[in-house]
C-alpha cells in the first residue's frame, strides 16, 4: 500500500517543536525510519506530515554533565558505537546497539526511535535501564524528564504525547569498578529480534560479596523490566556457581509469575534462567 | 577465464570460466522481469481469498470496474480456455470458480493504469462466500467423512515400493529401531519475487517475459488457459533471481497471458514479497514413521517406511514428491527388504510443490537419523555403519534397479572420514555449558524426473561467418546451466566458450529442454547439446576432409580451424567450411536430443529403473549447542559430492555453499506457518553471519552416459546438511530431535528431556 503525506524537515529544534505544537496529532516523527517506514507501508499509520528530525543539530551530540551523560536522541547506533565515551562508559549498551538489526539498520536507527517505538524486545532498553535512564522530552514550551521505566507502559505503548519529542537520554555511568554485560538470544545471528535479552551491571566488595547489582530483562513481558526485588536480595551474597544458577531460576520464576504462563513459557523459563546465569557469570566470575 | 589454460587443452571442461551473464549482473544491466519496460503497460493485481475453504456465492465487480484508473476486472468467467492448470495434475484454477481452497487463492484479476488504481479497484470488489469447514492436517483430510477439498477426493496420490520379505527380516533382526519424524512447510525465499510482463503483437501472438524455471511448460499451460494455440504464446525467461522449484509453477504468467490476450494491451505484474509468501508453492511438510532392522554387524536388513505428506490446496509438483520421497527412503544404502508407502493429501493449507530436492531432504533427515540410532544401539561408529551399508557397483536400490556405474558414495564418505575422525577426537567431555558435537549426513539423488520421459533438445548453428550459436530451452535461474552448456558445446567444437553465442529459454527461439528441476540440466540438456554439437562437428569434419583431400581421422577441430593433426599448417577455417557447406546445401543447424534411459515404476511394487544416474554425497557438520539458551552454532561443514565430472568446479562449489546455507536454514530455523507467516520479517533464513566454514570436496566418479561424465549437484547440495546438523546436535546432547526445524524451542526441549524421546504422531491412515 502506498500513502501520500507531506515531508517536512525542520531546520531547528524550535521549528520542529512548533510544527509539533501545530500538527502533532497528524504528524509522524521520522528519525531513522526503520520502524516508521514499516507502519507507513502497511498503512497502520497514515499521517498527514512526516517530520524528519534526523538532522537537528541541537540534539546530535553526546554531552557530559557532572555525574551524568546526555545522549542526543537522534544519534544513530553506528555513531554511538563509534563514540569513545559511550563505548568506554556503557559497554553493555554498546554491545546491545551492536546487536541491532544489521549494519544498514544501525546506520540509520536511533536510540530515541527505539524508545518511542517501545518494543518489548528493544535491544537498547535493558542496558539503559541498568543506568537508571531518564528521558528528556520536549514540547514547544515545556520540558519533562521521565524515568525510562515510567515512560514505557506496555508493548508498543508509552506516555509520549503527539506534540512531544524525545530530545535527550540521560544515563548515569556505573562506578568504574562495576562490570556490565549485555546478552541476547535470537533465532539467528543478525537481523533478528531478541527472544530474550538481559543487561546486568554489578560489583563485588573487598571480600568477594555482591555489593551492587542491577538487572534488566527484555522480551519477556510487555515492557523490559528491572528486577529490583531480586537485585536487593542478592546484596551481600557470594556469587558461587550454584548460587548463580539459582538466581537465574529465581528470576525466571519471578518473571513467569509476573506475566503468567503462555505458550512460549516452556522455552522462555529455562532460557531466561540460562541467559541471566551467563550475564551474572560475565559480571561476577572471572 | 584464462586463455592460456584453455588453449593448452582446447577443452574448457573442468575450467572455472566465469558465469555467462555475470558481468551484466554485476553492472546492474541484467534485465529481471520487473525491469522490463513496456510502454503504457497496465498494472495487474489479484484479489485473493482470505478464507481457507469456502464456496463463492457471488463476486460483485461493478464498483471496481468503474473505479478511477481501472481498465478491467476479470473473474473465472472471463477465462476463454480450460480454467485448470498444474505441473502434473491440472487441478488449479487460475481464478477460482466454484470455491476457494486456501488463504491466497486468486478470485479476481484487476488491470489498471497504476498500482494505486489497481489496489483501489481490488478493494472495491465484493465477494460473498459460504464458509466450509477447513482441513489443515493431511491425515484428517484422508479420514472417512472428511469434507472434500476437491471433487475427486482429498487423496493426491500414493506410492508403494516393495522388495524382498520385510516381515521376515524384521523377525530375524538383531535390532529394530522405529521412530517418527516431522517436518514443516518451508518457503523458497528466492531473492527475486515473481514478476512478468506481456504484450500482444500485430500477428496476435502473446509474448510473456517471466521470471521462470520452466518456459516451455508455461507456454503449454498458458495456451490451454486461453484456449489459444501454443505457437501463439511465446515465453521469454528474463534474468531470474532464484527459483528453487517454486518458479516451476506458473505464478504470474497465467494472469499476464489472460489480461494481455483479453485487453490486447501490454501488462505487467510483480508480486510483493508478501504475495510471493502467501500464494506460491512451499516445501511439503512430511510425517514419517521409519522402522529399520539390522543385524548385529550393523548391516541393514529391512526398512518399513510410511510417509504422509500435505500438498496443501493444489497438487503442483506434489505427485513427484510422493514418489521421489518413497524411492529415496533407503538413502544411499543397500537394503534387501523394503516396504515403503507414501501417501499425500490435499488440505486447505498453502500449496506445496517442488522445492530443491522434491521430498528427499525430508526423508534424508529420517534415514540419516535412523542410521545414527542403529549405530548407537549397536555401538558402531556412525561412519562405520554407513560404510558397511552403502550402495556399490552392482548394488540394487529399493526399486530393484542395479547400479552399474558412477556410485561415488563410498568415495564421498572416505573423503570426509579424516575430517570426521579429527573433529571426533578433538571433542572432549566438558563441564562447560557449550557442548560440541559432530554428525554425518549422506544421500543419493536420482537425476531427472522419476520413471517418466523427460527429454531435452538443443540446436547448434554455424553461420557463414564462422560464428556458432547454441539454442537451448534450459532456464538458467542462477545455477549456471548457461555456462555449463556453453562449455560443453565449446569443448566439442574446440573453441573458446566466449566465442559461442547462446540463446536460451525463449520458446520463440528454442525448443524444449524441459524444466530446470530435478538437478537435470547439466546431465540431460548437456547431453542434448553434446548430441547437436557432435552432429554439426561430424558434418564439418566430413566437409573439411573433402576440402583438404585427406582422411577424416587425420583432422582435428581446434581454435576455429580444422587442421591436420600432424601438420597444423594444413587447415581450413570454420568460416571456409561454412561457406562451402552453404553453397552445397549441407545443413549447418543441427538438432540434439537426449532422454535418459528409465523405466516407469510398477504401480504395485514400485519396481523399475526410475533414473539413469544418481548423484551421491556425504557431509559432516560440527556444531556447538549452548545448553543455557538452546542456541546452536554450526562451526564447520565438510561436504563431499560425487558429481560425475565438474564441468565448472566453481559452479559446483557455489551450489554446495548455497545448498549448505539452505540446509542450515531447513535444519535450524525455517518454518512457514500457513495463515501466519507473512514475510521475511517472521520467516528466518540464515544470514552470512550464521554460516559455518564450508569445505567443499568435489568427487568425480564419472557417469558413462553423462556429458564428459557429468551428473548433477543442484539439489544434492542441500540434502545432507540438515541430517548432519541434527545428528551433530544429538551427538552433543545425547538426546535427539525428531522435528524440523530444530529451533530454539526444540533444542531447549531436547536439552531438558535428557534422553531420546520420540515424537508422538498419531497415524490414522
Ligand atoms: C530489519 C530491521 C531489523 C531490526 N532489528 C532490531 C533489533 O535487532 N533490535 C531492536 O531493538 N530493534 C530492531 N529494529 C527496530 C528499529 O530499528 C529500532 O527500534 C530503531 O531503534 C528505531 O529507530 P529509528 O530512528 O529508525 O525510528 P523511526 O522509525 O524513525 O521511529 C520509530 C517510532 O518512534 C517515533 N520517534 C522516533 N524518534 C522520536 C523522537 N526523537 N521523539 C519522539 N518520537 C520519536 C516515530 O514517530 C516512530 O513512531 C529493526 C528494524 C528493522 C527494519
Question: Mind describing the biggest β-sheet of chain A?
Answer: 5 strands, antiparallel
CATH homologous superfamily (4th level) name of the domain at 401-445 and 613-765 in chain B: Aldehyde oxidase/xanthine dehydrogenase, molybdopterin binding domain
Care to count the β-strands of chain B?
Answer: 26
Ligand set: flavin-adenine dinucleotide
Q: Tell me, what's the shape of chain B?
A: globular
Largest sheet of chain B: 7 strands, mixed
**What is the architecture of the largest domain in chain A at the second tier of CATH?**
2-Layer Sandwich
Structural class assignment of chain A: alpha+beta
Q: What's the average pLDDT of chain B? A: 96
Count of DSSP H/I helices of chain B: 19
Overall CATH class of the domain at 401-445 and 613-765 in chain B = Alpha Beta
Strands ordered across the widest β-sheet of chain A: 4-5-10-6-7
Question: What is the largest interface, and how many residues per chain?
Answer: A-B, 21 and 23 residues
**Element pattern of chain A in H and E:** EHEHEEEHHHHHHEEHEEEEEEEHHH
- Percentage of residues in helical conformation of chain B: 25-40%
Question: In what range is the share of β-strand residues of chain B?
Answer: 15-25%
Any low-confidence stretches of chain B, pLDDT <50, length ≥5?
A: 1-5, 756-765
Please state the CA-atom Rg of chain B, rounded to the nearest Å.
Answer: 27 Å
CA(first)-CA(last) distance of chain B: 57 Å
Determine and state the CATH class of the largest domain in chain A.
Answer: Alpha Beta
State the gist of this model.
Chain A is of the alpha+beta class and 286 residues long.
Topology:
The complex is a heterodimer of chains A (286) and B (765).
Chain A: E1 6-8, H1 13-23, E2 27-30, H2 36-42, E3 49-52, E4 62-65, E5 68-72, H3 77-81, H4 84-89, H5 91-99, H6 103-108, H7 111-117, H8 125-129, E6 134-139, E7 142-147, H9 148-151, E8 152-154, E9 157-158, E10 165-171, E11 179-185, E12 196-204, E13 210-218, E14 225-226, H10 228-234, H11 241-259, H12 265-284
Parallel strand pairs in A: 1-3, 2-3
Antiparallel strand pairs in A: 4-5, 5-10, 6-7, 6-10, 8-9, 11-12, 12-13, 13-14
Helix pairs in contact in A: 11-12
Chain B: H1 3-9, H2 22-26, E1 42-48, E2 54-60, H3 62-65, E3 70-74, E4 99-100, E5 106-112, H4 115-123, E6 126-131, H5 138-142, E7 155-163, H6 166-172, E8 175-182, E9 195-200, E10 206-210, H7 215-226, E11 233-237, H8 253-263, E12 267-270, H9 273-279, E13 286-294, E14 300-312, H10 318-327, E15 337-346, H11 360-378, H12 382-389, H13 409-426, E16 434-446, E17 456-462, E18 468-472, H14 481-492, E19 500-504, H15 521-548, E20 555-558, E21 561-564, E22 571-573, H16 574-584, E23 589-594, E24 614-626, E25 632-642, H17 649-668, E26 693-699, H18 721-733, H19 744-753
Parallel strand pairs in B: 1-12, 10-11, 14-15, 18-19, 25-26
Antiparallel strand pairs in B: 1-5, 2-4, 2-6, 3-5, 7-15, 8-13, 9-10, 9-12, 13-14, 16-24, 17-18, 17-23, 20-21, 21-22, 24-25
The structure holds flavin-adenine dinucleotide.
Residues 28-36, 53, 73-74, 99-101, 105, 108-110, 112-114, 116-117, 122-123, 160, 165-166, 191, 193 of chain A line the site of flavin-adenine dinucleotide.
